[in-house]
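Hi D.,

Good news: the full-assembly prediction came through. Inputs first.
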Amino acid sequence: MSAPYVPVLVPVPDQETQPFWDGCREGKLMLQRCGTCGGFRYPPRPSCPHCTTPGGEWVATSGRGRIYSWMIVHHPVHADQKAKVPYNVVMVELEEGPHIVSELIGVEFDEIRADLEVSVVFEQLSPTISLPKFRRVEN
Amino acid sequence: MGIGQTDFSKKSGRTELQLACEAIGAALEDAGLPVAAVDGLVRYKSDTNLEIAVVSGLGIPNLRYFGEVGYGGSAHCAVIGHAASAIACGMADVVVCFRAANERSGVRFGLPDPTWEMQGVQTFTAAFGMISPGQRFAMFARRHMLRFGTTSRQFAHVAVTMREHALRNPNAMMYGRPLTIEDHQQSRMIVDPLRLYDCCLETDGAVAIVVTSAERARDLRQRPVYVMGAAQATGPDPNGIVFRPDLSTSEASFAARDLYAMAGVGPKDVDVAMLYDHFTPLVLFALEAYGFCKPGESGPFVEAGGIKWPNGSLPVNTHGGNLSEGYIQGLTHVSEAVRQLRGTSTSQVRDAEIALVGSATAQVSSALILRR
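Then the structure:
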C-alpha cells in the first residue's frame, strides 16, 4: 500500500497570522476583532476594514456559518490538487460576518447548496498546522 | 495612434523580447513614427520584458517615462491611462504600451511559480485547493447563478458569440473552428461551474499600442482615436480576491462611475464594447458593472443576442476576444476598439463613434472610453 500523499502547499505562519494558526492547532477558530467598532475580520490584517482602526484583539469564535458559494475542482493545476480531484471548495459566511475559504467534508457534491448551516472542524496537516474545515450541522 | 501585433499561435518560435520588438515595430509603422520618437514605455508587471530590455532591443535613444502596472490583465486599460497621464503632464510625447508572452509554449500562465511561498493571503486559499484564476472566479460565477438564476447555458452564449466573431477574423486562433452551444455544454468541467469553453485561450504573441498627444496625432498617418476617459478601480477588500462581502458584483462599477464622469458620456452612448473575457461569466459581470444591463439581466441579454455583431444592441469583442482570438491579457481589446473607430474591424459596427474597453476582472479593474 502506497504512502499517503503529503501536501506541498502547507501554510507558513508569520508574525501577523501566528495567533490564527495557534488557534487552529488548539481547535479554535480565532479571528481579529476591532477594539473600536467590534467588527470581525478575515483573513488577518493590520487594520479594521469596517472602521479603519489599527489593531484589535484575537477572539475565539463560534465556528458556525453557512455556505455562501462553492466550486468543484476537476482540473488540477498543482501536484497537491492532482492527488485530490475532484474536490469541493466552499466559501463559508461565518456568523461573525467574514467569509472563509475551506472545504465541506462529509457530503456528496450534489448535497452542497447555498445557506447550508455548517460548523468548523480541524484537520491536522502537521504538528504545528491544522486546517479549518467544515461539516454540515445536523438539526 | 498606432496599433501593432504579431501572429497569435501556440508556439511562436521566438523569444518574448523578439515578440515585443516585432509588435512595437509594427505599431510604430502603423503610426508612421520612427523608433527614435519613442520616449515612454508602459508595460504589464507580469511581462518578462523590462523596459530597459525593450530600449536596448529596439535602439530607443532616450526614455523619459517608464512604468508598469500589476494585476495581470487588469492592467490592459490602465497602461493606456498611465501613458495618457504622462503625455498630459508633459513627461513624454510618444508612449508605447505593450504585452508580449509565450504563454502557450512557455510558462503556462495561471500556474503557481514553483518557487512560490505559502505566505500572505495565499495561505488562506492555496492550502484549501484554490490556486488558479479559474479556481477563484468560479466562486463569483456560482454566486451570480445563486442570486440571479444565471445559467451555464448563458455562459455558453458568451463563448459562442465570441467564436462567431472570431470566424470572421483571420488573425484569430479559432478562425475556421466553429463552436455551438452544445459543444460548450458537453465540454469537460474545469472547475464547476466553469467548463473548458468558459476559459480563455493560451497564446504566444504580442501587441503594442502607440499613444501620443492629440496635437502630435494630427500630423500622423492614421486617423486619430482619442482617449476620452480612463479609470482604475479596486472595491473594498480586494486582497485574495474572494474574501469581499459580495461575489455577485464587480469593483468595475467604481471604474464605470469615474470613466463616464471623465468622458462625459453614458452607457447609451457606447456603440461597441470590448469586455475582458478571461472567463465567460465575467463578461456578464462587466455588462452589469458598466451599466449596459441591470444587475442579473446580463444572462438573458446575451441569450437574446444582445452582444452579437451585427444585430445586437451592443456588439462585444468583435475580434473574438480572449476566448477566441488570442489571449494577450487584453491589449488586443484596445487594438480592436481602435479598429472599430477607424472603420477597419472584420466585424465593423456601422458608424462606430464611441468604444468602451473594460474589465470586470474581479481583482482590480481598469477601463477606457475611446472616440474617433
